[in-house]
Each structure stands twice: as structure tokens, then as C-alpha cells.
Amino acid sequence: MVRLEMIANRSVEGDFFDLLQKRGLGEVYYTKVPVVFGVGDSGPRHGDHVWPEENFLLLMYCEEETADRVTDVVRELKREFPDEGIKLFRVAVLEGC
pTM, whole model, 2 decimals? Predict the structure, then answer.
């Protein structure tokens, strides 16, 4: 089991879900935090008049194979939108905890 954490600019959210559908991953389970703020490699995202952009956060628990496929989708999204701030973190989950 794998936990994926994706933090990305809200401007690419629709494109991400479209790519999931195209790759047959429309049934991936996730929890979405629709608006998150912070500072990363692509700069501040505070949703205010100075730094107006916002991010979203997805948490996904899935099997290794599905995680690999989602990772490929995120790589494709990053190629298409290299300046939008898209990060994916992958963590192994201990079974039975």
C-alpha cells in the first residue's frame, strides 16, 4: 500500500483529473483539500492580493501498480505545465497499523 500526496496549483486540477480518466484511473480513491496555502519551489501561494494563486492537496491510498500509473500521470502533467507548481510525494504505508 502506498500513500500519495499531491500538491498542485488549482489551475491544473481539471487537467489532472482529465488525464486520470484518459489513463483509466477514474476510480482512484482520494481525499481532496480544495484550497491550501504555502511556499514552495514555484513561489508563494497565499490566495491574497499579493500572492493570489492557490493550491489544492490530494491524498491517495492505493496499491503499488496504481501509484506507478498515477505517478506517470503527474509526470505528464508536469511536462505540459512546467511552471505551475506540481509536486507528488510517495510514502510506503505500514500494513496493519
Answer: 0.87
